[in-house]
Amino acid sequence: PHAVHLSDYAPYPFVIDGVELTFRLDPGRTRVISRIAFSPNPDGPGHSALQLDGERLKLIWARIDGAPVEPRITPEGLTCDVPTGSFVWEAEVEVDPAANTALEGLYMSNGMYCTQCEAQGFRRITYYPDRPDVMARFEVTIESDAPVRLSNGNPQEPDAQGRARWSDPWPKPAYLFALVAGNLTARSASFTTRSGREVALNVYVRPGDEDRCDYALDALIRSMRWDEEVYGREYDLDVFNIVAVDDFNMGAMENKGLNIFNSKYVLASPQTATDRDYEMIEGIIAHEYFHNWTGNRITCRDWFQLCLKEGLTVFRDQQFTGDMRSAPVKRIEDVLQLRARQFREDAGPLSHPVRPESYIEINNFYTATVYEKGAEVIGMLRRLVGAEAYDKALALYFDRHDGQACTIEDWLKVFEDATGRDLTQFKRWYTQSGTPHLRVLESWEDGTYSLHLQQQTPPTPGQPEKAPQVIPVAVGLLDPGGREVVPTRLLELTQAEQSFSFEGLSDRPVPSLLRGFSAPVVIERASTAQERALLLAHDTDPFNRWEAGRALAKELLVDMISNGTDPGDDYPGALGKVIEDEGLDPAFRALTLALPSEDDIAQTLKTAGITPDPMAVHEALNRLAVACARHLRAPLAALHDALAPNGPYTPDAEAAGRRSLRGAALGLLTRIDDGSRAEAQFAQADNMTEELGALTALLRAGKGHEQLAQFERKWSQDRLVMDKWFSVQVMLAAPREACEIADRLTAHPAFDWKNPNRFRAVLGGLAANHAGFHAPGGAAYALAADWLIRLDPVNPQTTARMSTMFETWRRYDADRQDMMRAALERLAAAPGVSRDTGEMVGRMLG
Ligand code: B3K
Ligand code: ZN
User: Fold this and answer.
1) Ligand number nearest to the C-alpha of 252
2) How high does pLDDT run on average in the chain?
3) 314 and 415 share a domain?
4) Of 431, 459, 476, which marks where a domain is finished?
5) From the alpha carbon of 119, which atom of ligand 1 is closest?
6) Ligand 1, atom 8: nearest CA belongs to which residue?
7) Is the domain of 734 the same as that of 840?
8) For residue range 558-602, what is the model confidence (pLDDT) as tens digits?
9) Over the stretch 87-145, which tens digit does the pLDDT of each residue have?
10) Is residue 769 assigned to a domain?
11) Which atom of ligand 1 is nearest to the CA of 288?
12) Which of 60, 233, 606, 767 has the fewest C-beta atoms under 10 angstroms from its C-beta?
């Protein structure tokens, strides 16, 4: 399989004046009739043969300007000689949705037809220039007995034969095409845009699920209003449809006017969804809706520009959640995610720039780097130019590029034009991979405090040398009593080394560095536990308050692991002050109470030059949790009692924050009590947050087997809840039992391994159990590899994505490295390994 390079971009020789598609739906033999009007592209290379992408299609006939033609067909597409000037291509192809287990193109899920085209699925529907810079208006006709038949754009009157018709007035690339047909039922509402357009909103689900749509609908309405108020963006069609699908490779898809969602991110009721599920639904509904402008109206020229739409849309959905809920809490959650996924990726063999330069399979680049680091880069840009200039630049972006397929150069040019700033050096954030490390040295003399900052980015695949980046470092200073003496100042580090001074201070200050996590970097600074405790108690920046607690925990854990020290009382004592501070948001207190993950500690050790032993990491975290629980037993019990539900469940941030603090308290208490507190909560819970919270507290403490069985009996008919049942028991299993439990679950009658959610629940759950995955003997590696090998021919995309469970293999000792390498090599050698998985494994093995 050959690599595609950014530097090879060339415009398509033709433009499309219009597309008409007719679908005759049939599970095993769907016919797709296309009529596409082509003209020469004035910006193209001149006259050429017509090349269309197409995979797994059976061509029935093809015509140009009404005359039959016989194109040259390969497994990737076709080539056909065409007249100079404009012409009309028509073709009929046959596809087999029922046999499509890859869930790309047109496929079936529980008897309903649906599509997934991004990035290159449309070529499995019909022959077409399947690239994002070819934009066209689509008219779609659907012939099917299904009561609901949907496509993009606005619905039209059915035709004379009763076929459904859709017309999308907005030119779009093929990756935004969608079609859905089946026995569905809708929950509906209506939204009036600020210019007075009446929009019908529908959430389509399987009959029986209609009472679980209200939250998604409400989140959609709030998203539409927010985008008008904050970005001045209005919706542009008469309808906005959302469809929930059980079999889906990822979270959701922003198809124009017809978003398709993994049902997990639509359906919610208090009994079946946790607070976390509600927050995810709100965020993903917003994300897909926001794509209507950042992605659809302005799209990407080619797939290397993916972060143009994804980084920006993630940044927008993060802002939205910050506005809907608590901005500091959201920031902490986002940084937790960034470190857990993106820093992990950037520290290993899969590290790549936010804008990659080559790929074999583009689906492998829908990564934490493109999405989350892509969003961080926009956050830095906004910090550097200021909120007002950011708004001005965005207004110019929408104005200048509406209807176009753009590049990162276009995006940066907008900021340069709007602000007068030169962004040449800033652009390195898009082209240079790896997480910069920021070394901080300090000096203090005659009332002047100086910070000496040094930046250094470790080598990453293909990039041994790094140039200095523009790093915005937000800094505040506290005096030794904890009073802020210098409020937040934004330092701009542009060189490899640079100093910044603060004058006129009476005492040597304690710095609060990188406030709000102002740049996605790793800070290296020798600091004392006293300083950390001071910041945890007094910093005015909520992010850094939390960060101080986190740093304390990490340093303590590293010390416990490498020197065998005891947890001591300082850390639990500092935590105690935070959790008892009634002036602090409960959600914030819950985040402070949570310990770092085992994977995070393993990475921290590695960065410090220590080879992590997963069992020792697990054991140290347990010891620290038990120490905290013992030290804080009384306040934790008081919190758990005081935060007991005092009314019916509501999913809002405030109520969720109280539940998360209550859950964190229960988790710790259950480690040291007889489990009765969690058992009582499990028995009394009237919502999934409390029910699952109690169950996970029990499982983590090695208890709860009875409750697990009860949970299964209660929820056996509910697919989404059963995913939770499958995953928690693997994720929270004792290290030496995890693999066996996962193995046993794969033999459970409800283990439908072709369903991505279910597969992820068990095998993803195993990988998420750090000590369980890396338990001595390597059985979990082997089990995971067996299942990936089995899934690959069925669903390459999900297999490739899940293969990243091995991306950290070089972190560990020689024995584990050998076993993980063997697992990867076995995967690479699987007969007919997919392009997707082959590329991932190849990169991981280096
Ligand atoms: N744009 C889609 C992701 C498509 C992934 C294709 N492998 C969802 C999103 O980011 O909103
Ligand atoms: Zn997106």
Assistant:
1) 1
2) 98
3) yes
4) 431
5) 6
6) 253
7) yes
8) 999 999 999 999 999 999 999 999 999 999 999 999 999 999 999
9) 999 999 999 999 999 999 999 999 999 999 999 999 999 999 999 999 999 999 999 99
10) yes
11) 11
12) 60
Asked if residue 48 and residue 177 are part of one domain, the reply reads yes
Average pLDDT over residues 765-782: 98
Are 393 and 456 part of one and the same domain? no
Q: CB of 283 within 8 A of CB of 321?
A: yes
Distance of CA 21 from the midpoint of ligand 2 (Å): 26
Decide if 169 is inside a domain.
yes
**Contact residues of ligand 1, CB 6 A cut-off:** 118-119, 250, 252-254, 287-288, 291, 310, 363, 366
Are residues 159 and 38 part of one domain? yes
User: Domain ends where: 431, 462, 481?
Assistant: 431
Considering only CA atoms, which residue is closest to atom 1 of ligand 1?
253
Q: Write out the two tokens for 583.
A: 């002036």
Tell how far the Cα of 671 is from the centroid of ligand 1, in angstroms: 40
Distance 680 CA to ligand 2 centre (A): 41
Instruction: Please check whether residue 692 lies inside any domain of the structure.
Output: no
Q: What is the pLDDT of residue 832?
A: 97
Atom of ligand 1 nearest to the CA of 252: 8
Query: In this structure, which residue's CA is closest to atom 7 in ligand 1?
Result: 363
| Structure tokens given for 475 | 């800094």
Please report which helix (H) or strand (E) contains residue 434, including its range.
Answer: none
pLDDT by residue (tens digit) across 192-243?
999 999 999 999 999 999 999 999 999 999 999 999 999 999 999 999 999 9
Taking phi over 0 as left and psi of -120 to 50 as alpha, with beta for the rest, 568 belongs to left
Domain span including residue 390: 299-431
Respond yes or no: is residue 20 known to be catalytic. no
Q: CB-based burial of residue 124 (10 Å sphere; 0-12 exposed, 13-18 middle, 19+ buried)?
A: buried
Ligand nearest to the backbone CA of 260: 1
| β-bridge pairing 405-406 and 299-300 | parallel
Whether 104 and 40 share a structural domain: yes
Per-residue model confidence (pLDDT) at position 230 = 98
Q: What is the mean pLDDT of residues 481-509?
A: 98
CB contact at 8 A, 44 and 9? no
Q: How many domains does the chain have?
A: 4
Instruction: Pick the ligand that lies closest to the CA of residue 303.
Output: 1
* Overall average pLDDT of the 767-775 stretch: 98
Q: Which residues surround ligand 2, an ion (CB under 5 A)?
A: 310, 313
The answer for residues whose C-beta is within 8 angstroms of residue 118's C-beta and 6 or more apart is: 175, 176, 253
Q: What is the pLDDT of residue 1?
A: 76
Phi-psi region of 349 (alpha: psi -120 to 50; beta: other; left: phi over 0): alpha
Of 55, 279, 288, 372, the active-site residue reads 288
**CATH number (domain holding residue 786):** 1.25.50.10
Ligand 2 centre from 550 Cα, in Å?
A: 30
Q: What percent of the chain has pLDDT over 70?
A: 100
* Mutation test residue for ligand 1: of 250, 293, 306, 361, the one with most atoms within 8 Å of CB: 250
Give the ligand whose atoms come closest to the C-alpha of residue 284: 1
Regarding whether 93 and 52 lie in a shared domain, the answer is: yes
| pTM attached to this predicted model | 0.99
399 lies in the same domain as 482: no
The span from the CA of 666 to the CA of 693, in Å, is: 8
- Quick: pLDDT tens for 701-727: 999 999 999 999 999 999 999 999 999
One-letter amino acid identity for 499?
Answer: S
Question: What CATH number should be reported for the domain holding residue 127?
Answer: 2.60.40.1730
Over residues 734-755, the pLDDT tens digits come to 999 999 999 999 999 999 999 9
Residue nearest to atom 2 of ligand 1 (CA): 253
Q: Is residue 604 domain-resident?
A: no
Q: How far is CA 637 from CA 127, 156, 673, in A?
A: 64, 61, 11
Q: Ligand 1 centroid to 253 CA: how many Å?
A: 5
Residue 412 maps to which CATH number?
Answer: 1.10.390.10
